[in-house]
Amino acid sequence: MFRPGQKVGFTMMANEAKKIWMDGRLVDAGQAHVHVLSHTFHYGVGVFEGIRCYETPGGPAIFRLEDHVRRLLLSARLYKMPLPYSAEEVARAIDETQAANEIVPSYIRPIVYRGEPALGVKNLKGKVSLAVAAIPAKKYLGPSSETGVRAKISPFRKPQSDAQPSFAKSCGNYVNGYLAGVDAELDGYEEAILLDQNGYIAEGTGENIFLVRDGTVYTPGLESDILLGITRSSVITIAEDLGFKVVQKLLSMNELLSADELFFSGTFAEIAPVREVSHYTIGDGKVGPITREVMQVFYRTIAGKEPKYAAWLHPVPPLSSFGTSHRGAAPKGTA
Ligand code: PMP
Fold first, then answer.
1. Ligand 1 center–CA 266 separation, angstroms
2. Helices marked H in the chain — which ranges?
3. Has domain 144-312 been given CATH number 3.20.10.10?
4. pTM tops 0.90
5. If you measure from the C-alpha of residue 289 to the centroid of ligand 1, how many angstroms do you get, rounded to a whole number?
6. Protein residue with its CA nearest to atom 5 in ligand 1
7. Which residues of the chain have pLDDT under 50?
8. Atom of ligand 1 nearest to the CA of 226
């Protein structure tokens, strides 16, 4: 039985970061401070990414780095947080942080924030900063990845995107995810499934959701209030390449509870089968055959063993290739 507070499927140790990249400098993690009166801390106006770096036969490789950088810049744009770095500079900061921390597999967390003391909700002029951390992240190998997770339909619904745009991965969006996740955990479930304001299926607190019915794969589409997950897009490609039809549409509770197979996708959870939803067994309660097929290709891909998707893996350059920048020079564009 799942116990509240128990880690589900993945383990991350935020206190094991060694060096954190802050506006062009790699600083010791213990010195990576932000002012307690910072705007982002008080109002949740910040945007971030969650990225994984994997061990592959060719060395450490970051999964779909360019797509994560593109989404970070989109999130920053939607929140009117003009980042003083180009996409290439952000990618380089991520590479440098990964190289400096020498942790593989890792979870990389770039965050765009206003870190100067500033109270008052409107804050267009505050300096926009970037920090990047890399921490150890074990592969998703918990018992739930074998047997499937138990998820609860959350009483907390997703805010509509005319309240908070869901395509932006903003700090504030996770207040809703927190409430849903804690409610599920206190009820003995491993994850929550959030509905949108109209009662359609949206996503998990940190995952997109897929269901399989009569051999077809379904997932909520762009009209849903979801984050457009990068793992989601990988799953769609893999499933289609395997010959399955993938349909993106509004999904009802009927379709969820009567699905033959169900699984989550996300950078944290990778691909996680779901065996039970709010006391309803999904299919026969076991990992379904289509889920298993997609998982096998995905896990081979991130291990660098699937030539077809080799372009999704970005090799991390050695720290020496960053010259002196890791000793503290600020990149182009910083004040
Ligand atoms: N939805 C939400 C709310 C998330 O936080 C995440 C994790 N970033 C996802 C979906 C999955 O997105 P990705 O596959 O890009 O990690």
1. 5
2. 39-43, 65-78, 87-101, 143-147, 173-186, 230-241, 253-257, 289-302
3. yes
4. yes
5. 24
6. 206
7. 1, 9-10, 141, 326-335
8. 1
